[in-house]
Amino acid sequence: GFARGHRWPYRRSVAVPPSSAPASGAPIGAAGIVLLGLALQEVGASIAVLLFPQTGAAGMVTLRLVLSAAVLLIVCRPRLRGHAGSAWITVIGFGMALAAMNLLFYEALVRLPLGAAVTIEVIGPLVLSVVVGRRAIGWRWAGLALVGVVLLGRGGLTELDPIGVLFAAGAGTMWAAYILLSARTSRAFAKLDGLAIAMTVGALLVLPFGVATAGPVLVQPNILGLGLAVALLSSTIPYALELRALRTLPPAAFSILMSLAPATAATAGFLILGQELGVLQLVAVGLVVVASAGAVLSNPRPGG
User: Fold this and answer.
1) What is d(CA 211, CA 181) in angstroms, rounded to the nearest whole number?
2) What are phi and psi of 64, to 5 degrees?
3) What one-character-per-residue DSSP string does 185-251 give?
4) Which among 83, 102, 205, 215 is placed 20 to 30 Å from 93, CA to CA?
5) How many whole angstroms separate alpha carbon 234 and alpha carbon 224?
6) Four-point Cα dihedral 229, 11, 120, 178, nearest 10
7) Hey, which residues does 12 pair with through a beta bridge?
8) Is 277 left (phi over 0), alpha (psi -120 to 50) or beta?
């Protein structure tokens, strides 16, 4: 999916300016839209996991980014002329972070349950939020999240594949970089032009890896169809839903809802993939969700 901008942003998309609409509009409906977007994104991730035996992680990332880029290029028709060199450096870096984040995350999904992978991954944005907020209490929330991650593996991550943990942590680091670069890109390019260009850069970067690992499988009609479903469910539709929700939902409330991502992922992993988490691991997911929401509440932003 896309990353959420420069706020406390679970998920993946360009920065979205805070809505000027009154917060009293239809917050329940807007919240429902956000939660629907979360659910769709995790359904998309679950479909991707089911395709791993045919495509591998790199092949699946290639399908997702190439098809997402195609949709964005058709819909947005980004303007390529008239941009400064610094803007191009930023958007290329944005695309590199996008490619690395998705590739690392999908490699983590090969080795870890969906809920565990997302729970570890969100530590990156959480730490970024704490650092940007510059408030001591933020480090307490980060510490609580770290306790949750340790519990996730029942004392030292011994029950989780260590390589998968490293991939998920790397994805979280790239997520933080993606957030910073998405904010800069949104200031340098109009509308969704920067996102369309960055997605294209990311697609070109992962394409050689996908072709090398999956080859002709990528162009099989059934694989292409499911890959398009992943691209739409994990990226295009959730982004459109959340953009609509931000017209009436206060940014702080939006960020708190996004902190439910680990719980949503764990639920999707259980219902779709049959990935069960033990009681201790569910407590761990809950700690990270609480820590994420706490970081939002203790780090108020203007307009949020």
Assistant:
1) 27
2) -65, -50
3) HHHHSSTTHHHHHHHHHHHHHHHHHHHHHHGGGGGSHHHHHHHHHHHIIIIIHHHHHHHHHTTTS-H
4) 215
5) 15
6) 110
7) 3
8) beta
Q: How far apart are CA 302 and CA 304, in angstroms?
A: 5
Helix (H, G, I), strand (E, B) or coil at 12: strand
User: Do residues 195 and 185 touch, judged by C-beta distance below 8 A?
Assistant: yes
- Which three-class secondary structure state does DSSP give residue 150? helix
Helix 261-273, helix 114-121: angle, nearest 10: 160
**Type of residue found at 271:** L
The pTM score is: 0.80
296: Cα within 13 Å, side-chain hemisphere? 23
Distance between CA atoms of 1 and 252, rounded to whole angstroms? 21
State which amino acid sits at residue 304.
G
Phi, psi of 232 (to 5 degrees): -70, -45
Q: How far apart are CA 140 and CA 134, in angstroms?
A: 12
Ordered per-residue pLDDT tens for the chain, 304 residues: 343 333 334 344 334 443 344 444 444 577 888 888 889 988 999 999 999 999 999 999 999 999 999 998 998 899 888 888 899 999 999 999 999 999 999 999 999 988 889 888 888 877 777 777 667 777 788 788 778 877 776 544 456 888 999 999 999 999 888 878 887 888 888 878 888 899 999 999 999 999 999 989 999 999 999 999 999 998 778 877 776 776 677 766 776 777 788 888 888 988 999 888 788 888 888 888 888 778 767 765 544 4
Across the chain, how many H-helices and E-strands are there? Answer: 12, 0
Neighbours of 28 (CB within 10 A): 9
